[in-house]
Records
---
Amino acid sequence: MNIPPIAAAQTGAAAGASRIAANFDTFLTLLTAQLQNQDPLDPLDTDKFVSQLVEFSSVEQSIETNRNLETLIGLQSSAETANALALLGRTVVFAGDRARIEGGAAEWRYVVPEGASAVALTVVDGDGRIVAQSAGSAAAGEHAFVWNGGVEGGVYRLGVAAVDRSGRSLAAAARSLAGVTSVATVDGAARLSTALGDIGLADVTRVIANR
């Protein structure tokens, strides 16, 4: 399991805070020197002094805001990684149309919208050839589809076409299933490794109990 440090996601915020802090230190040095070297007979104008103090406070608040933002980014990234770790060894359903033949069968999910009267399922191999066709359920919602007949270990794609009673095409979609084998963080975002490739945590639509 490879989980790089969260710090990579915070690089931008940390760099910004560093620049603000440098400006803050410079401002403080200049203001102190001005107070120490002012002419006693012609002291610093009160309005200008107040204005500089306001600017001083504004810079300080900017630094604190940047630090708080950096902390929030770290907490969000940590929470996402923790959620991803809970999926290790679980089977997830996610946006996609691919499935790998395991135990002589390939399994998908497909989603049918309201108003469908007919659904056609098409299995395509890696060369784009149609290897199987079947009628699917026209009921609205998510359905399972299992196909037997491919070469063990082969990857196939599922096409889903749905129409209403007037023959108008509807937006149906296929979904892939795969077990999560490892978790990593890439640019501060959690990535799940599966036999079908890496996916983002946001791509997961369902988690299935261990089978």
---
Amino acid sequence: MYFYTMEEQLPLRKIIHVDMDAFYASVEQLDNPQLRGLPIAVGGSESRGVVAAASYEARKFGVRSAMSGSIAKRNCPELIFVKTRFDRYREISKQIRKIFFEYTDLVEPLSLDEAYLDVTHNKKGMFSATKIAEEIRQSIFDTTGLTASAGISINKFVAKIASDYNKPNGQKTVPPEEVLRFLEQLDIRKYHGIGKVTSKKMYSLGIFTGKELREKELEYLITHFGKAGAYYYKAVRGIHTSQVRSSRIQKSVGAERTFAENLTSELFLEKKIQVVASELVTRISNRKVSGKTLTLKLKYSDFTIQTRSKTLPFYISEKSMIVEYATQLLYQEKLQNSVRLLGVSISNLNTGPKKEKQKEEEIPLQVQLELPF
């Protein structure tokens, strides 16, 4: 069991993070055998748009999601662009989640292709979380023909890192007694919540691995990284008590459109707002929500992004009102450049009362008795 600084002891948890392998691209290769083994990019095009997903064959050439289509094509001249089919991805995602619920009701989806599962107390009475992950991955393959990777550990933070360890089509278990050693040997770039900018700053301070991060005092990290420093201090010590929640509060709903040619006039963009607003209303209707905050997103020809927001004293969901306020935001200030993408999103949703955020406890990771994973 684990001993905590708090008087109350918390039970050992067994958390699995399941992540589908190159999900969108793998679905396209599954449905079109002619694409198998070839470098493909889902979304975008050779001259426009942004890559939504890349096959592993394309990743070898440095093609990544969120990369512009032109850069992706430059990195991989043989790259094949495929249109997104979200209805198909959602269809398969439902099949995968059905498998999850065969083992536990504590399933927290992060997206169509990944989720956390708390299998501490599972429906099949299995003792080994490692074995559960193996069964789930095999069942996913038998049902969909797609492969998945998994990470298994004592909390969501470590499980998510572990799921990347043996990708694709693999899994890694980090049992309680190995958590600290596992975190210490990782490059700090592997830590979720440490991006490119922060990692460069850490490098400049002589922090390259978890071991070096753990050697820093809390006060030192807060001095250099503000409130995030406290998070890094906990993370490297395996402190993460966030529960797997079967229902996640949605924070926003949005839609956007990348244009075939850059637009330089607000008049042309007004017409695009109408189109994007129609898609947004469909998504709002499907989710049965409305919101108070409307945000207009503009991506310029130099790929810089500008957002303009307006918070209203009432909830809206009708297209006419969304168009009205999005148009106001469009004319709020002059365009900085020609526009290649326009998006509209609505947030501050009426999704019900927010639950009080659970306070993370200061939990030193000390193992006295091992419980098999």
